[in-house]
Amino acid sequence: MLVHPQFSPIAFQIGPVAVRWYGLMYLVAFALAWTLGRWRIRHGKTPLTLRDLDDLLFYCVLGVVVGGRLGYVLFYKPSHYLAHPLEIFEVWQGGMSFHGGLLGVILVMLAFARARGRRFFEIGDFVATLVPLGLAAGRLGNFINGELWGRPTTVPWGMVFPQAGDGIPRHPSQLYELGLEGLALFALVWLFARKPRPVGQVSGVFLMGYGVFRFIVEYTREPDSFLGILAAGFTMGQWLSLPMIVLGFVFYAWSARRPPAGAQA
């Protein structure tokens, strides 16, 4: 049996300014996206320019933060925040949703595509290759904070999370998500995008890959106490992942009828 190391939530402090690990992981995520994006642009993997990348990442930060917060409010605790609307702005108390952040980024990409005269899926395919490592950084932040722990287990690597308050060994589901939604998904999407693909197909692979990996990991992750298990024995995370899988398949099938995009060779 393992015990969570109980890291300090503060990575480092400069005077009165404390930099928390979770916030630092967000910076790491966008730094990785910027680095990978520049590599793809310089190697001719996308028709987007370096200026496009800088502007797109700036707006995507807003999409992730605003969409992630509103997604958590609407998907997970609508009645609570309806009764306490000012708490919506208390982001330092935690409460972000990946699916909400994804919707926020999609809206940003739609607006960006229209403003720059580019195809939406052209941007989507580019962004899809940059996201997974950022997700891995976020899940590492969850593990450092000792939050979003897994369900009780008897596996040898079961870990006691003191924050859970019960002393029961649990799945380190944050690390499972880091490995699947982060590293495995990155390898899948990055390798798939190495060859010329029809516009929209890389986006489809990303959506299907994330949806399937998240759906699987949810079986080891402790459901939110205020929601529990929902219809059909699924968690909220699983119900939100199902549309991703379906849409990913639709995008993949639709794009398969189109010629490969030469700019992505």
UniProtKB/TrEMBL annotation:
Report any Pfam family annotated for this entry.
LGT
Any idea which positions bind a 1,2-diacyl-sn-glycero-3-phospho-(1'-sn-glycerol)? 139
- Quote the InterPro entries the UniProt record gives: Lgt
Q: Where are the transmembrane segments?
A: 20-36, 56-76, 96-113, 175-193, 199-217, 229-254
Where is the protein found, in the record's own terms?
Cell membrane
Asked whether the UniProt record includes Cell membrane among its keywords, one would answer yes
Q: HAMAP family, from UniProt?
A: Lgt
Q: What is this protein called?
A: Phosphatidylglycerol--prolipoprotein diacylglyceryl transferase
The source organism is Pigmentiphaga soli
The UniProt gene name for this protein comes to lgt
